[in-house]
Design a protein that fits this description.
Blueprint: H1 25-35, E1 40-44, E2 47-50, H2 51-68, E3 76-80, H3 86-96, E4 100-103, H4 110-120, E5 124-128, H5 132-138, E6 146-150, H6 158-172, E7 183-185, H7 186-193, E8 208-214, E9 222-227, H8 228-242, E10 252-255, H9 262-274, E11 278-281, H10 288-295, E12 302-305, H11 307-314, E13 329-332, H12 339-349, E14 354-358, E15 365-368, E16 382-383, E17 388-392, E18 405-410, H13 422-428, E19 435-443, E20 449-454, E21 459-461, E22 464-466, H14 468-476, E23 481-491, E24 495-504, H15 511-519, E25 530-533, H16 547-551
Parallel strand pairs: 1-11, 3-4, 3-5, 4-8, 5-6, 6-7, 10-11, 10-12, 12-13, 13-14, 24-25
Antiparallel strand pairs: 1-2, 8-9, 14-15, 15-16, 17-18, 18-19, 19-20, 21-22, 23-24
Helix pairs in contact: 1-2, 2-3, 2-7, 4-5, 8-9, 11-12
Length: 554
């Protein structure tokens, strides 16, 4: 497709970016810590970590993996933590040492965790002790060789850290990290790493930086292979987009979305690292009153989030009392931004809420609206530099302006496929190398793209993908269920919620029993909000359940 979107680019944004500027994330990291050594890189719960300190600590963690554990290049290291200072230390350390980061949602159930760690063949996991009980349930069945456990207070300083850990352990009734069988504390891992020198490793664009798991069409999550080249390219693309609107070394961005989510990882943790910004890490964004108090302590210049988060902030009366005079960028992604939320955000903060679009498989940015956009425009924006898009019909033929078709993407940020899943990889791409997004879109004469429908059955709950097959597989294992189908339905708070239609084998089966069954096997956002019992489910003539008919009320 002709790049008609270039005519709408903001001044200063190039059509192409230099994807060869950095050979690896480690090379970008080295440049950043040299340039901004004395500046604050991350703040969490009142504790700051400078770029120089991050350099030292991540080097020690890298040396621990190399020198103490002797892992071969490319080994997988899982990180299962919320937004705490330990995350960037472990993440950058893993990448600097030539290994692959496997991000894990801390809220996963034992079943979900076992699948991901088995699938990625993880060697080491760094886990917050709050969630170690989940790991302990399946640890004996995993290839896991090394366990590093940390606590919320471990990097907050002796006095504050001790108080935080005492309170959390008492409330949660947790076993302290050092009492877990075979576990090493994060501090001890850093101390062991300090005994070794970090050995330089040759890392290039083709080496895998992240195995970023996303829902699978077969029901099981699959790992999108994100190479150093993919991530570096997306950093360059995002940086080119924001550069005309920021001041290097002076930005402060609020990071409320978890860093294990690809949006927060690339947009906040990495892109703003490149410009010497300070990331304020919000460990528990669900505590809106506490979140708003933390916002009041900072003159923040940028914030990212999903629609539900922005809406929750706007519904807290204390939020409107904050000082927004420094705010220049408010970026919404992960799910559609609602017009009512965008308009209220503009009226309260004076800053437009800018919508962006991306996928795990695209590292993630595909499109972003101009950051100087005055008003909400119902669009996901323009393709970022060095990105091709194509709107295609069901036969794979390219469509033109204002014609509905599947949005397909090609560019240096696009994953080469899924970890150990060649068939899924083949299905995901067109014959000429475009990634099929599964979203139905139209592009207007100025190059702005609008999502109008979804081709896939994927459900989007507060920015997280939920695939019906996974929910259905869990429910089908219940002895009282004969048939089941899961669909997404509109939800005022989360955009969409999971609803299931069930044909009972056991007439006494209740909605409450099924939801309780799911809570034991699925992360909270995947658990059905509603259950509707039916005598039969609509099917095709070959017996395939028609989810769309159920979604449309059939």
């Amino acid at each position: 497709m002709e790049r008609i979107w270039l005519q709408s680019y903001p001044p200063g944004v190039p059509a192409e970016v230099d994807v060869d500027r950095y050979r690896s994330i480690g090379e970008l990291f080295d440049e950043g810590v040299r340039a901004f050594a004395a500046k604050t890189a991350y703040v969490c719960m009142g504790k700051s970590l400078s770029y120089g300190e991050l350099d030292i600590l991540s080097s020690r963690f890298a040396a621990y993996l190399q020198g103490e554990l002797g892992l071969p290049k490319g080994a997988r290291v899982a990180l299962m933590m919320p937004n705490v200072l330990q995350y960037p230390v472990a993440m950058f350390g893993t990448l600097r040492a030539g290994y692959t980061v496997v991000n894990v949602n801390p809220l996963y159930t034992a079943r979900e965790l076992e699948h991901q760690l088995q699938d990625a063949d993880v060697d080491v996991i760094v886990i917050l002790e709050n969630f170690a009980h989940t790991l302990q349930q399946v640890r004996a069945r995993l290839p896991l060789k090394h366990l590093v456990v940390t606590s919320l207070g471990e990097m907050l300083g002796f006095a504050k850290g001790a108080i935080v850990d005492f309170v959390v352990r008492r409330v949660k009734k947790m076993v302290p990290a050092w009492q877990l069988d075979g576990a090493l504390s994060f501090s001890d891992a850093l101390a062991q790493g300090a005994r070794h020198a970090l050995r330089p490793v040759e890392v290039g664009h083709d080496d895998i930086a992240f195995l970023q798991y996303t829902g699978g069409t077969t029901g099981a999550p699959k790992g999108a292979i994100l190479s150093h080249g993919n991530i570096v390219a997306n950093l360059q693309q995002a940086h080119a987009w924001v550069k005309p609107f920021i001041t290097e070394g002076e930005e402060l961005i609020i990071t409320a979305l978890p860093l294990y989510h690809i949006f927060s990882l690339t947009a906040n943790c990495l892109t703003f690292f490149k410009v010497g910004a300070t990331n304020v890490l919000i460990t528990n964004p669900r505590d809106i009153p506490g979140f708003v108090k933390e916002l009041g302590r900072h003159r923040f210049t940028a914030i990212t989030g999903v629609n539900t988060l922005f809406n929750a902030l706007l519904n807290n009366p204390e939020f409107a009392k904050l000082d927004f005079s420094s705010l220049r960028i408010a970026l919404g992604g992960g799910m559609a931004v609602q017009q009512a939320v965008a308009e209220k955000w503009k009226s309260v903060t004076g800053q437009a809420l800018i919508e962006a679009y991306g996928l795990t498989e695209t590292s993630p940015a595909v499109t972003i609206n101009p950051l100087d956009l005055a008003e909400f425009n119902h669009s996901i924006g323009l393709p970022v530099p060095s990105t091709e898009i194509s709107i295609r019909d069901d036969d794979g033929l390219e469509l033109g302006v204002d014609q509905r078709g599947e949005l397909c993407v090609r560019g240096p940020q696009v994953s080469r496929g899924y970890w150990n899943r060649p068939e899924d990889t083949a299905r995901a791409f067109t014959s000429d190398g475009f990634l099929r997004t599964g979203d139905i879109a139209v592009i207007d004469e100025k190059g702005y793209i609008r999502i109008v429908d979804r081709k896939k059955d994927m459900i989007l709950v507060s920015g997280f993908n939920v695939y019906p097959n996974e929910v259905e597989d869990v429910l089908a294992s219940h002895p009282g269920v004969l048939e089941v189908a899961a669909v997404g339905v509109p939800d005022e708070h989360s955009g969409e919620a999971v609803k299931v239609f069930v044909v009972r084998k056991d007439p006494a089966l209740t909605e409450q029993a099924l939801i309780a069954y799911c809570r034991d096997k699925l992360t909270g956002y995947k658990v059905p909000h509603r259950v509707e019992f039916r005598e039969e489910l609509p099917k095709t003539n070959v017996g395939k359940i028609l989810r769309r008919a159920l979604r449309d009320g059939g």
